[in-house]
Specification:
The protein is α+β, with helices and mostly antiparallel strands and 419 residues long. The chain is built from 15 helices and eleven strands.
Length: 419
């Protein structure tokens, strides 16, 4: 799920400052530390301005509508609901706008090249601390520096490749999070100097988000996809700096969340994701198409099986995927094709998918039958799970449609696979 890149990883706040330039003293202090940590110089001085909460709310809605066109968002919402990753009652656009309004109290806007700090943002109990102000400015100043070397706006304009966009966002937000901490904690391997090390950094970011009411009540999918760029992204940047000392991580962008979760698949031996192109659906009209990637495949397994290690294991052999949301004469359905590194990876994933289907439909174990295709029915749905070989790669096809609709939506022989 694409989350606006203006979100901050921590609940931050800022206050208005007298003088010709807002926060001039704090910016002047932060810039040298950022430049030393990142290894790049600002080409031009960053601009900093303040905005009211109403200004921010209007900006967020405009930015959200630009980055999430209505029809695209509706298609994604339907797809995630069909996969059981979002509750049927959720209005995704309304919820995301409430979440963004709660989260953002400082942001860098690539369109205007200005770092905006919100009047009175971040706390409801009085004036924010100097430390909170410094965290806000440092994080967003890293984005301002990034934007002088790479086009941040281009990430938001990617369409139809959710996984690649999530990977790119993880690099940019991960670098901002890592360098923010590095600049404020003395640089170097700062995590080693903290009680609990890097694990404590991750816990702190999670704890800070769960103190925010809207986020705390968000579905697991939204919480985890919001945190992914900061947690896994910062870990990727940490590993990148160890392997590519002196290089900027955005010069070696990962192509998938698989490469973010497993940096060695980019930094040691490149394991590029497979590109999957599904044919025109049979007997149904296409309403939305995208991919989950390894990270959201992992979330799917965790959502339905409830075990972190099982979900990580089941998604680890991911090679590529694509799903189509369709309208059948009986209602909405979904076809999701996944490709795997080895036959063993595919078999493990299919077994876990079978367990998840049985739990969702409340059917007894083994009711899907045996063989290459297994069929399930319950709660007004019928599901087919098929093991196959597609483009020379082990594959699993999951189809979920309303009762009475045909599960023959995708002709596997017409699927195109490429690097």
């Amino acid at each position: 799920m694409r989350i606006l890149s203006v979100l901050l990883a921590l609940p931050l706040a800022a206050c208005q400052q007298d003088g010709a330039a807002p926060y001039a003293r704090e910016v002047a202090t932060a810039i040298p530390a950022i430049e030393r940590s990142v290894g790049l110089k600002f080409k031009t001085p960053p601009k900093v301005e303040t905005r009211s909460k109403d200004d921010v709310r209007a900006f967020l809605q405009k930015k959200f509508d630009e980055d999430q066109p209505v029809l695209e968002l509706a298609g994604a919402e339907r797809g995630y609901k069909l996969l059981g990753l979002l509750p049927d009652s959720l209005d995704l656009r309304k919820f995301m706008l409430a979440l963004l309004a709660e989260q953002v109290i400082g942001y860098y806007d690539p369109a205007t090249k200005v770092l905006y700090v919100v009047h009175g943002g971040g706390t409801a109990k009085g004036a924010p601390s100097a430390d909170m102000l410094n965290v806000t400015l440092t994080h967003e100043l890293v984005h301002a520096l990034q934007d002088q070397y790479v086009n941040l706006d281009s990430l938001a304009k990617l369409r139809g490749d959710n996984d690649r966009q999530a990977a790119g966002q993880a690099v940019m937000e991960g670098q901002a999070t890592f360098e923010q901490l590095s600049a404020m904690l003395g640089g170097g391997n700062f995590a080693m100097n903290l009680p609990g090390g890097w694990d404590r950094v991750r816990e702190t970011i999670r704890e800070s988000q769960h103190s925010m009411p809207v986020f705390a009540n968000a579905p697991m999918l939204i919480q985890e996809t919001l945190l992914f760029p900061y947690l896994s992204g910062a870990e990727f940047v940490r590993r990148f700096k160890e392997k590519r000392n002196g290089a900027a991580p955005f010069t070696h962008m990962p192509l998938s969340t698989e490469q973010v979760l497993h940096p060695e698949k980019l930094l040691d031996a490149v394991d590029a994701p497979l590109h999957v192109e599904l044919p025109k659906p049979i007997g149904a009209s296409l309403t939305y198409s995208n991919g989950l990637g390894e990270f959201e495949t992992r979330l799917y397994l965790f959502q339905h099986l409830g075990d972190v290690s099982t979900a990580a294991r089941g998604a680890a052999g991911w090679g590529g995927d694509r799903f189509d949301v369709v309208n059948t004469p009986q209602g909405a359905g979904i076809a999701w094709l996944t490709l795997w590194d080895t036959p063993l990876d595919a078999a493990d994933f299919r077994d876990l998918m079978e367990q998840s289907i049985e739990k969702r439909l409340a059917t007894a174990h083994g009711t899907g039958g045996t063989g290459a295709s297994r069929r399930f029915a319950g709660k007004g749905r019928q599901v087919e799970l098929t093991a196959a070989t597609v483009g020379g790669h082990p594959a699993v096809l999951f189809v979920d449609v309303p009762t009475g609709a045909s599960t023959r939506i995708i002709e596997l022989s017409q699927v195109k696979v490429s690097k």
